[in-house]
Design the sequence.
């Protein structure tokens, strides 16, 4: 309807100088009712939280009489134009505004997330391309509730890393060419490094105090202690296969990176010894847990996405999971439950399993999200 309205508007403008008989042949349709609203939560989104809804709908004068109906997702309703509602239980609530105009209706649905102030568990972050944001969920015995971190949008957040010593979260903004740093709540955001070529696959080594990442054609690193946004070192460049996923063997000071159009490589922290150890991977993510290397691989012939495990020399042992809908950018390890977590990109899912792939289950599902990078942080006591 929106596109048709724009087309008709152009026709109207083009014919504005014409006589009435031409205008009669190109009637301009009546403007449509568009339902829209915004919401603000009190108490920083923790229960009890009062949600104040502001009706921002567009209702043309020619529409005549109209009625509002709000559904707050917890079984309660309102017919006010811009109501308020208090949520007393944490959760994700689907709020819908329905506007009835004669026999026509317009509606808008949004998710309102209300948090538990006494929650304990381990932080899990993920990049959401649809929301252009990083979201936070807590790993515990409860059903996870994910909520976007505060701040401006970050288009294509394809890399995440957590510094649990200094309490920092690092976010790769692929589109902007920036790496951001926030606190663990997502606040106090700064640009940590800028002017980069498509940063992805962040990884931290606190022993050397470096942050590593992949770019469009190479691997770079920065000193965590430096506040200079231009301070970074290119370890290796001119990689034509498009590096995406990056992980670290911190004990042996080795970098592993998987490429979007090629294989999986290993090299030393200084860039020496760069060797392709697994061919034809076509992957986007990797992770090292102990002496095991987990990595994503895409098969062009079968169009199947798989998560595989190998030893650190690249000898493939087994397939952990398969059938994901999209690239697996995010693979993370939670020492609390000794499980790996990975993204199922287009299904809006994060899946977890034992290190051998058994007991696989969906940990989090958000159909509105397109999930990329994953990082697991410290535990909230």
Sequence:
């Amino acid at each position: 309807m929106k596109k048709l309205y724009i087309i008709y508007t152009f026709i109207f403008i083009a014919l504005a100088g014409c006589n009435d008989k031409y205008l009669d042949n190109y009637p301009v349709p009546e403007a449509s009712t568009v339902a829209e609203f915004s919401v603000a939560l009190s108490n920083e989104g923790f229960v009890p939280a009062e949600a104040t809804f502001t009706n921002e709908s567009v209702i043309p004068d020619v529409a005549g009489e109209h009625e509002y109906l709000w559904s707050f997702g917890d079984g309660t309703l309102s017919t006010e134009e811009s109501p308020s509602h208090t949520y007393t239980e944490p959760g994700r609530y689907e709020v819908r505004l329905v506007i009835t105009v004669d026999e026509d209706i317009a509606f808008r649905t949004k998710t309102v997330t209300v948090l538990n102030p006494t929650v304990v568990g381990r932080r899990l972050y993920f990049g959401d391309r649809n929301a252009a944001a990083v979201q936070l969920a807590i790993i515990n015995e409860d059903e996870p509730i994910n909520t976007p971190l505060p701040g401006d949008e970050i288009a294509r957040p394809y890399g995440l890393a957590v510094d649990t010593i200094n309490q920092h979260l690092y976010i790769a903004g692929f589109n902007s060419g920036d790496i951001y740093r926030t606190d663990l709540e997502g606040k106090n955001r700064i640009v940590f490094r800028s002017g980069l070529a498509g940063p992805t696959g962040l990884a931290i080594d606190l022993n050397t105090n470096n942050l590593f990442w992949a770019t469009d054609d190479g691997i770079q690193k920065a000193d965590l202690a430096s506040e200079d946004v231009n301070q970074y070192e290119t370890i290796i460049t001119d990689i034509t296969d498009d590096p995406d996923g990056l992980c670290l063997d911190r004990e042996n000071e080795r970098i592993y990176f998987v490429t979007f159009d090629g294989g999986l490589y290993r090299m030393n922290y200084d860039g020496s010894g760069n060797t392709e150890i697994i061919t034809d991977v076509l992957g986007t993510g990797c992770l090292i847990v102990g002496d095991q290397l987990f990595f994503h691989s895409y098969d062009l012939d079968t169009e199947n996405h798989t998560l595989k495990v190998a030893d650190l020399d690249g000898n493939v042992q087994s397939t952990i999971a398969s059938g994901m809908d999209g690239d697996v950018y995010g693979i993370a390890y939670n020492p609390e439950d000794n499980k790996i977590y990975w993204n199922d990109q287009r299904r809006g899912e994060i899946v977890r399993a034992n290190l051998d792939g058994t007991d696989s289950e969906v940990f989090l599902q958000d159909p509105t999200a397109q999930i990329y990078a994953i990082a697991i942080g410290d535990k909230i006591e």
